[in-house]
Write a structure and sequence with these properties.
The complex is a heterodimer of chains A (341) and B (230). Chain A is of the alpha+beta class and 341 residues long. Helix content of chain A is 24%, strand content 34%. Chain A contains 9 helices and 21 strands. In chain A, the strands form 4 sheets. In chain A, strands 3, 7, 8, 9, 10, 11 and 12 form a 7-stranded mixed β-sheet that branches. Chain A has a 5-stranded antiparallel β-sheet with strand order 2-1-4-5-6, with helices on one face. In chain B, helix 1 crosses helix 5 and helix 6 packs antiparallel against helix 7. Chain B has a single domain, classed as MetI-like fold, CATH 1.10.3720. The radius of gyration of chain B is 21 Å and the shape is globular.
């Protein structure tokens, strides 16, 4: 059981190239907005027609530009959870769910709908209209409706973008619980690394319409394959560097990293885990202290070159720093990554 | 008082509204999907009757449907029926004149429709016909109804093109508007006032209906927004 996608699509100046394969697992499509994640989903669902390529679901060819195969969305059996859930506003919760049931007599359909309503804790809401439901309830109705249509794959398009952040955590748990009953490929589109990390086994980073190879979450966070992947993992520091004897030197800083650079100039990404403070080998001036919700970060500037690009460091618990003071730190070179044009 | 003009006006307006209901919806749905250039051209052509003087529409219709013209002559020869100067000739005139009203209003409603609803219906396996009649139409109901009522009201009041293509024959092609003109010509003020009153009454009811529909849609929109926030 798997979903294979290899498509190209030109939309004005935008050029989409998506290629990946998903088994019965959850694959995150991770990328900034406008990178082609949603278009990819629409191509798989049959809403948008790719220019070239192949889409195969469980051995069934959904789209093949060479053989001129292009199944309608109805024939594809791909469930699509839209960002705003796309519940039919003129129908009640029950009618919406009945819409998802493809076959069976009237009474069979009603029985199945009643069962799904119970499973999704929607009892008592049968006669309500979508506009009368909370965001979380709407999402459950949409998901129940999709599962009723017995899809062979499920596409989730930014499932939490329509919700307030304080609701997200619980709803995420709920959504992954409800999805555990589904056996088949799931594509989870998101721009939030944490969300992907909590809910997906594999990840495919998309950048400017191009997909990168599928990796597991751990690999992405530890060894991002591209600079933008490093950005998506939440890395704050991208510092310019130049080649020198024994490695590269960060511009303006007296810090030598034993990283191999082919050219003269490079960019070094320094993730939070690559910096240890106190008792380090380098010193810097604390130019700003930023208090976040559950951590404190400091902006460090090189004492000898205050105009050099600063380094942002999250302080471990218990460590305090005042603006204007001096802080010592070390960089773990093996956690830093070097990027060249 | 001879009520024939009222009956005649109502049946002409009703029949042309039924025709335009389907034609307008059909055009609004399919033209929106055409390439931009063709869409622009069709848009202009189909909206033209709205801004043209009705006499120009009537003149063009006579040029096409008159007994000595291509279509008119062919129909006369084949079926032995004259297309002009009968009560139903007015239907040609009203249909052409009210088409843009329906087409424009429905197109506006369709453009405001959230296409993801149609897409989600498709991925759930619903047929396109089901999506159109059970989801798209109910969601655009206010606009479609408003367009229909406006088209009916305009058809009821059509004078220029109607008088040219159907003329005025008491008891045969007379409508309210042509009757009022005839009564004024013959200085029959007493009867003219009565027909004017009838006309104003009908128009007022129609406009009240339109207002009610619009108010309802506003209220519904507001209550929806409120419940979404809560």
């Amino acid at each position: 059981m798997s979903l294979y996608v290899d498509i190209e699509k030109r939309l004005g100046a935008f050029y989409l190239r998506s290629k990946f394969e998903v088994a019965d697992e959850t694959l995150a499509l991770l990328g900034a907005s406008g990178c082609g994640k949603s278009v990819t989903l629409k191509c798989i669902a049959g809403i948008v027609t790719p220019d070239r390529g192949r889409i195969v679901l469980n051995g069934r060819v959904l789209f093949d530009s060479e053989k001129r195969t292009d199944l309608t969305p109805q024939q594809r059996r791909v469930g699509y959870l839209f960002q705003q859930y796309a519940l039919f506003p003129n129908m009640t919760v029950e009618q919406n769910i009945l819409c998802g049931i493809r076959a069976g007599s009237r009474s069979e359909k009603r029985a199945l709908a009643a069962e799904k309503l119970r499973m999704f804790r929607l009892e008592g809401l049968e006669k309500k209209y979508p506009a009368q439901l909370s965001g979380g309830q709407q999402q459950r109705v949409a998901l129940a409706r999709i599962l009723c249509s017995e899809p062979q794959a499920i596409l989730l398009d930014e499932p939490f973008s329509a919700l307030d952040s304080y609701l997200k955590w619980n709803l995420e748990l709920e959504l992954s619980d409800l999805l555990t009953g589904f056996h088949g490929p799931i594509l989870w589109v998101s721009h939030d690394l944490g969300e992907c990390c909590r809910n997906c086994q594999k990840v495919c980073v998309m950048e400017n319409g191009a997909s990168s190879p599928v990796t597991d979450m751990e690999t992405l966070v530890r060894y991002p394959a591209t600079q933008s992947a490093a950005q998506l993992t939440g890395c704050r520091n991208f510092l310019p560097a130049h080649r020198c004897e024994g490695g590269v030197r960060l511009d303006g800083w007296d810090i030598l990293l034993p990283l191999h650079a082919a050219g003269e100039r490079a960019t070094v990404s320094v993730p939070d885990g690559a910096i240890t403070v106190e008792g380090g080998t380098h010193t810097a001036r604390v130019s700003r202290v930023i208090r976040d919700l559950n951590a404190t970060a400091v902006v460090l500037r090189a004492a000898e070159a205050p105009d050099a690009p600063p380094l942002c460091v999250v302080l471990p618990e218990g460590v305090r720093a005042a603006e204007g003071s001096t802080l010592s730190f070390s960089l773990l070179a093996d956690r830093c990554r070097l990027w060249e044009e | 008082m001879d009520w024939y003009p009222l009956w005649n006006s109502l049946r002409i307006a009703a029949i042309s509204t039924v025709i335009i209901f389907f034609a307008g919806i059909f055009a609004a749905y399919y033209i929106a999907r055409l390439p931009r250039l063709i869409k622009g051209v069709l848009d202009v052509v189909l909206t033209l009757p709205l801004v043209l003087p009705p006499t120009v529409v009537g003149y063009l219709l006579l040029r096409v449907l008159g007994p000595q013209r291509v279509i008119g002559a062919w129909v006369l020869e084949t079926f032995g029926v004259k297309l002009v100067m009968t009560w139903w000739s007015a239907i040609f005139a009203t249909t052409v004149v009210i088409f843009p009203l329906m087409y424009r209003t429905v197109r506006g409603a369709f453009e405001a429709f959230d296409e993801t609803l149609a897409y989600s219906g498709q991925t759930l396996g619903l047929s396109n016909a089901y999506i159109f009649w059970r989801i798209r139409m109910p969601c655009c109901r206010q606009g479609v109804l408003a367009g229909t009522v406006l088209a009916f009201a305009r058809a009821l009041g059509e004078y220029g093109a109607t008088s040219m293509i159907a003329g005025y024959t008491p008891g045969r092609t007379a409508t309210i508007s042509t009757t009022v003109y005839q009564l004024w010509q013959t200085n029959n003020d007493a009867l003219a006032y009565k027909w004017v009153a009838v006309n104003i009454a009908i128009s007022a009811v129609v406009l009240l209906t339109v207002n009610m529909l619009e108010r309802r849609s506003l209220l519904r929109g507001a209550s929806r927004a409120r419940s979404v926030k809560a």
